[in-house]
What we know:
By secondary structure, the chain is mainly alpha-helical. The protein has a single domain (2-220), classed as Helix Hairpins. It has helices at residues 2-8, 10-28, 33-54, 58-80, 87-114, 120-147, 156-159, 165-180, 195-229, and strands spanning 152-154, 188-190. It has a two-stranded antiparallel sheet. The longest helix has 35 residues, at 195-229.
Amino acid sequence: MIRAAGRTRKHLALLVAIVVLLVAQPLLGHKSVAIGAFFDAVVAAICLYVFFIVFAERWQRRTGLALFLPVLAGNCAIYILPPPARIPPAIVYHCFLVMFLGFTIAVILRDIFRKRAISGDDVLGAFCGYLLIGVAWANLYAMTYLLVPGAFSVKPDLAWRLGEWHLQHALFDYLSFTTLTSLGYSDISPAGAPAYSLTWLEVLFGQFYMAVVVAQLVGFKLAEALKGDAPEAK
Length: 234
């Protein structure tokens, strides 16, 4: 019974975990190595939750595991290696986390579009997908910064944040969600290729996601309403 209840509220639990992580990590993640490691463990726990709850089919779990293991290895290497040697594992971490999150988004949407009736938890699942898009693009930005540092323009009073692992995450999360929602406060902004391409692609993808997913959910609800209002056949 507990397992069944967990499955019916799986997207609610995922949503709460993502929001808490996005809010708490920028505030506390840089305070000490132990706290930073704790938040990285939370990220790993969320990935494992996705692995066991969202990935319901065997091929999905195999693919998810193949993408998650390099994320875990790269994150551990960042704590073990000296600072000059951390860039390669950080690139591996961001690259495979982007692929893992992209695969998660695809599975969530596939499950939603296959349903004949939509529940409130499915709506939360669509919102989880939207948040995961922002997190995935934040990791794309972070990986781009490691490869092409001059691709971003950062105000001097924020530039110091790029030197700390968790503050860097928070800064690119901020850039990603302001880009995804078409806000753009210009305190951090693209300043060259490939950051230019990533930003406009994120805006287009975000708008496409909202248009398609919202239209699909509304269509499901209208179909349910029309089916409920239809007179019973005699």
